[in-house]
Hints:
- Helix 7 runs antiparallel to helix 8.
- Helix content is about 80%, strand content about 0%.
- It has one domain (about 5-260).
- The protein has helices at about 5-20, 25-35, 40-65, 70-95, 100-130, 145-160, 165-175, 185-210, 215-235, 240-255, 260-285, 285-290, 290-295, 305-315, 320-325.
Amino acid sequence: xxxxxxxxxxxxxxxxxxxxxxxxxxxxxxxxxxxxxxxxxxxxxxxxxxxxxxxxxxxxxxxxxxxxxxxxxxxxxxxxxxxxxxxxxxxxxxxxxxxxxxxxxxxxxxxxxxxxxxxxxxxxxxxxxxxxxxxxxxxxxxxxxxxxxxxxxxxxxxxxxxxxxxxxxxxxxxxxxxxxxxxxxxxxxxxxxxxxxxxxxxxxxxxxxxxxxxxxxxxxxxxxxxxxxxxxxxxxxxxxxxxxxxxxxxxxxxxxxxxxxxxxxxxxxxxxxxxxxxxxxxxxxxxxxxxxxxxxxxxxxxxxxxxxxxxxxxxxxxxxxxxxxxx
Length: 327
């Protein structure tokens, strides 16, 4: 069993994104193994699935300790996802030409993710205009059982048919079904529900796949510590930082699934990062307001929530007794 230090390094990057967003693991890890390290597709998928059995529980444990997981949501999603994973595998076998069918499903998934990324941007704009903030805690949110089970079913079906991609889609759907729940808490819930789903998929990979244990070990060594760091950041970081990262990862996953080449993908993502940085610089103007204040403030230039909250609290304090007596 030979470890590949470059796979370790690449897995650390992907693991950080998984911990931060709960999405992008399979969509980024598998193409990385195939395109950059010439791992056979079947071996890349199987090795990634087995490594996820160790990677995702670590991130889920961090969020459980931080209280950013809604266990009822997890239970409902698992109720839909695990059975549908087997249904997806069965449907794929009925389609006959497995490779072609899987490619078509991945293209459809990529298109859905691109639409989802655009919808997340639209949702962000609408939240800004309405003044709505995602401040609900994991235990305060009212659970909607039927939509939640349907989300789990959709994710499980995709895992069964493609082996990857469910995390990105589930995050998009959860963001819309639970508009008050912060992105960090959605990440914790999604990572936790993915644990039994990943375990079921990994059992199938061990039984029928082509696992390369050297590749799996390299993924685990690189990704597990990075997932811990990413999960700690997502469980603490403000929503205004996590949501753009989730959107970016889902956008990248969607482009990869629809067949965008590696060079074109790098150019597109680089252009998006530069455009985002330019937008933030134009709005925040850190050279005028100071870098620390600019980082603390939202991108629309309004004062930080903590500052405005302090001012509101101060204004709401009752007058001293002497002042009331004088009046």
